[in-house]
Amino acid sequence: MTFHILISDPLSEEGIYPLRQAEGMNIVIETDLTPEQLAIRIGDFDALLVRSQTQVTRAIIEKGHNLKIIGRAGVGVDNIDLEAATEHGIIVVNAPDGNTNSAAEHTMAMLMSMARKIPQAFHALRNKNWDRKSFVGVELKNKTLGVIGLGRIGAEVAARAKGQRMNVMAYDPFLTAEKAEKLGIGFGTVEEVLKVADFITVHTPLLKETRHLINADAFAIMKDGVQIVNCARGGIIDENALYDAIQSKKVAGAALDVFEQEPLVDFRLLDLPEVVATPHLGASTIEAQESVAVDVSADVVSYFTTGTVRNS
Ligand code: NAD
Ligand code: MLT
């Protein structure tokens, strides 16, 4: 029996080794399909493997007459219509921890770049401008980092921030006193954390409850001169409210890896000198890309050979 597998976003070649090794897997890699082309092609496949680019909408799922499993090589499944998949009996698997370390490291890189204005200084230097006055930063040591969402990545970031001798305060609806104690961090309500933090980093999924969690009201209760990082999902921070908070000097720095609309179309925030940004690179390391692709490829093989998967 042959299973037909479509890979519609670029995945690590090493990462799809489990699929290449398994018998009876016909792997088709087509990473430039328009939604219309995907809707036409999808009916031929038993499995679809994506990263975050492919939008697996209800329309696509409804055309996937043979589709049994969708693998998301990464954490967030917000590009897949889960309700439609469930209605059609299609299993959705992701790679929940394959990129945790890379995302945590990227968060720390963004935090430090923002605090020391490294991208801005590099930009000036590249323009042959030896300017040592405009890029005075602030130290992390003894400052309080507020972590909103203490899951896999949030906890790794908290541990690294402790290494920078920061105080860490976290909010997560599932955070227990035991976990906080183990990590050596404080915890409180979201308002309590926002009030005391010098730096804030968000690590929640994008859900109904977390969309615009950081909005104008949230900025209003923060310290003046707070700096904020988003390496989780665009939309957790209200970008219009962030723009206003930077303009009013309430917010002294923002480090953004993710945006409400991706690829980015509204570059207004990036015109502000307080903002540093990357184009959704949190998981873009050789190690993470291999790891997430291995995880979902192994799940697809497992599903077609044993009928079970590690996670769904
Ligand atoms: P996770 O599921 O391990 O952790 C998420 C945490 O958020 C959980 O502990 C959950 O209890 C908490 N949470 C849920 N609702 C909350 C709320 N209203 N307030 C506070 N906390 C809340 O996920 P993770 O692997 O740590 O990923 C975190 C985020 O980072 C996700 O949005 C994921 O998609 C994103 N991510 C981004 C990149 C990137 O490339 N930038 C890479 C990996 C993951
Ligand atoms: C994820 O959710 O895993 C990240 O956003 C990284 C990615 O989309 O590849």
UniProtKB/TrEMBL annotation:
Enzyme Commission number, as recorded: 1.1.1.95
Top-level EC class as recorded in UniProt: oxidoreductase
Keyword Ribosomal protein listed: no
Alphabetical UniProt keywords: Amino-acid biosynthesis, NAD, Oxidoreductase, Serine biosynthesis
GO molecular function, one term: phosphoglycerate dehydrogenase activity
Catalytic activity: (2R)-3-phosphoglycerate + NAD(+) = 3-phosphooxypyruvate + NADH + H(+); (R)-2-hydroxyglutarate + NAD(+) = 2-oxoglutarate + NADH + H(+)
Pathway it works in: Amino-acid biosynthesis; L-serine biosynthesis; L-serine from 3-phospho-D-glycerate: step 1/3
Top-level lineage group: Bacteria
Transmembrane region(s): none
Similarity comment text for this entry: Belongs to the D-isomer specific 2-hydroxyacid dehydrogenase family.
Protein task: Catalyzes the reversible oxidation of 3-phospho-D-glycerate to 3-phosphonooxypyruvate, the first step of the phosphorylated L-serine biosynthesis pathway. Also catalyzes the reversible oxidation of 2-hydroxyglutarate to 2-oxoglutarate.
Protein name per UniProt: D-3-phosphoglycerate dehydrogenase
Organism: Planococcus shixiaomingii
Lineage of the organism: Bacteria, Bacillati, Bacillota, Bacilli, Bacillales
Covered range of the whole protein: 1 to 312 of 528
